[in-house]
Design brief:
This protein is an all-alpha fold. The chain has five helices and no strands. Helix 1 runs parallel beside helix 4. It is elongated.
Length: 160
């Protein structure tokens, strides 16, 4: 099996996942889901804030518009040209240009994210369910009600 090289996205992914944070550190997941699922932790973009996603979308849109203009002008570009243009674009946009591949592989980040998701799930499982919470509240209210009905000087009931 070939060794998977590290990647900057995996570095971010590994640093963002945390089973002790709300939603295990995830900020987005598919609509209709109440909370993230195990499959959602494997997508690095799910850990970015709405503002970060918006910025990423804008950068991609601008870059694709540039690519379309190049195609309309029938300008032939190699992959090397595209990489150089992307670096220039990021410099003009005052964005950081990555100079290395990172230190974490995607596989290692995925395994870490899944472990953190399991930790998060165990924390959720340890919390009382909504039914249990309502029951506890009802018991407290019943005790308060019983105490308020007792008159001063009443004898406590025998526990025989």
């Amino acid at each position: 099996m070939a060794r998977v090289p590290p990647s900057p996205a995996a570095n971010f992914w590994a640093s963002a996942t945390d089973g002790t944070k709300p939603n295990a550190g995830l900020t987005t997941w598919p609509k209709g889901q109440i909370r993230p699922r195990q499959a959602d932790v494997a997508i690095a973009k799910n850990y970015q804030s709405a503002e970060e996603i918006d910025q990423l979308n804008r950068i991609v849109t601008i870059y694709l518009e540039f690519a379309e203009l190049q195609a309309m002008n029938r300008k032939t570009m190699t992959m090397r040209d595209w990489i150089a243009k992307l670096d220039q674009f990021l410099q003009i946009s005052e964005r950081e240009i990555l100079t290395h591949a990172g230190t974490v592989t995607a596989e290692a980040a995925r395994v870490l994210a899944e472990q953190e998701c399991e930790k998060y799930q165990r924390l959720l499982d340890a919390q009382p369910s909504p039914v249990e919470q309502h029951f506890e509240e009802a018991v407290k209210k019943a005790k308060l009600l019983a105490q308020s009905k007792k008159k001063p000087g009443d004898k406590p009931e025998d526990k025989a």
